[in-house]
Amino acid sequence: MSTPSHGPLVRVPFADLQALLQRIFQRHGCSETVAGVLAHNCSSAQRDGAHSHGVFRIPGYVSTLASGWVDGRATPTVTDVAPGYVRVDAAGGFAQPALAAARQLLIEKARKAGIAVLAIHNSHHFAALWPDVEPFADQGLVALSVVNSMTCVVPHGARKPLFGTNPIAFAAPCAGQPPIVFDMATSAMAHGDVQIAARAGEQLAEGMGVDAQGQPTTDPRAILEGGALLPFGGHKGSALSMMVELLAAALTGGHFSWEFDWSGHPGAKTPWTGQLLIVIDPSMAEGSRFAQRSRELVEHMQACGLSRMPGERRYREREAAEREGVALQEQELQSLTALLG
Amino acid sequence: MSTPSHGPLVRVPFADLQALLQRIFQRHGCSETVAGVLAHNCSSAQRDGAHSHGVFRIPGYVSTLASGWVDGRATPTVTDVAPGYVRVDAAGGFAQPALAAARQLLIEKARKAGIAVLAIHNSHHFAALWPDVEPFADQGLVALSVVNSMTCVVPHGARKPLFGTNPIAFAAPCAGQPPIVFDMATSAMAHGDVQIAARAGEQLAEGMGVDAQGQPTTDPRAILEGGALLPFGGHKGSALSMMVELLAAALTGGHFSWEFDWSGHPGAKTPWTGQLLIVIDPSMAEGSRFAQRSRELVEHMQACGLSRMPGERRYREREAAEREGVALQEQELQSLTALLG
Questions:
Q1: Torsion angle (degrees, nearest 10) of CA A326, A332, A335, A337
Q2: Which residues form the signal peptide (chains A, B) (predicted)?
Q3: What is the fold of A1-67+311-341?
Q4: ipTM topping 0.85
């Protein structure tokens, strides 16, 4: 997640921002259903201060739709494979409408079998991952999701990039407060945050990436222009990134992060891969006790001096947005409005 | 995993080492069944060069059994909770016999439902985690396991230790070669490796831990004597460690890493917590294709210059041990034999 860039801010009611984005998505080739899902996802990220996945992404969505690389009108096909297994062919469209189409079946299976998995393939994921898992925790379930992306990370001990930024997101209910949620790239930084730093002319911390010659760099442009990111945490983050390729691509039937070729689609930005979600019903073993135990964990972390829980900043930004409206730069709002023309 | 310590080495056939360990476990209070499971686990770790979880652990097992902290004769109770959910009460015994008692049911459920979860509680885990997942991959399944341990890791941004070393292990089949397997502490180092470094009088790399005053240290003794480890990879590793507490303890009904009190049992070393395993049948979506895709991933990683795959060193050590016997220090073998007296 990033800090907002510079420039005068405006505040827009969430519903207005969502409606604006919905119109933009529809204007640029999405069906009403797909536009609704993406608009809610993207305004939620902006509302929660996840700026690298908020309205910052809209130009990328628009250029991708214009390039013909993604099908904004795709209808996902949901297959009920087994008592704990749902598969979705996203039909070359976005992953979020595929998840939305399968969500109810996935929840029913998790409640009945105790655990269920959703395997999405033939899908494009260009958004934050936490909006995919948080709603399950709101319903008392524990959710874990992984999605692979596009080659830009050098495996630990290798010389060339192969993996995507391959995030892992997790959500669990917590008594008396919003769910515990995290969403982490397995790269040292999220790709969107590198783009934001490049745009702002800022330098990165050391250990984030390498330049086109494979040499360490703190220049975000050097990473974006022929360079690559490193995994977080050395060989361990690298192993997790490998696991994400196996779960999100090999297991679902999607593409690995290096397998798709968008060179015939200038403007294409959305990785065409796969996504896996695992949902567990914690009441199976512990009845209603899980959320209380989750709360005890939080209290112990705070008692150890933890200043901020994972996800806490998002909830704070969300509260502020509910009171005052969603913050975005005046210039961003103008650019969005221009996309309706 | 660690490098072996110094001293003259001997080579012992695997079956002989396993038989010796089995006798030791039985001599010190384990039932034949429990002794068999632990002896196989511990000799496998020694065979594969995972020295921090090999015979190095035997004195800890013995002192724990003597202290009355763990029940070496416990009979686990397996409950068939739901089509994808198995629960085991390890009855204050070790986690490995609990897993062994539930393994067949777990596999049947994963093959039928597509995914299944095993929740073990009231269990002691004092071993490497990869032996718990690798056998599932040998049968064509994908397995993920987490286990929490005992307070010795300071959450990122906190002042005091709370989490255990909380490892994550993963295994997936791979066509034409042994499974892809990793087993990583979510701490910067495994606790056993800190103990081995302390015993060998070696210094650690920076960023591994803090001393009793919370100051960074490279002295393993300072970490063990009132100090603590740090998570790997900063806030991301810390979030994963938190997730392990939620999955392995809160979800199973086990203890968090800070909840058990062994002060009345001098010599006790085994964390009394919980363990979660998730097993997925990759044939549900992709038929027999998964292992081939897994192999393609490995080949691409190698083509990028990766010198060593996760788990590769273990397989190399295993092959050597099959040819020449399992390596251990002469002094270790003497100490083991003395434990039969």
A1: 10
A2: none
A3: Hypothetical Oxidoreductase Yiak; Chain: A, domain 1 (1.10.1530)
A4: yes
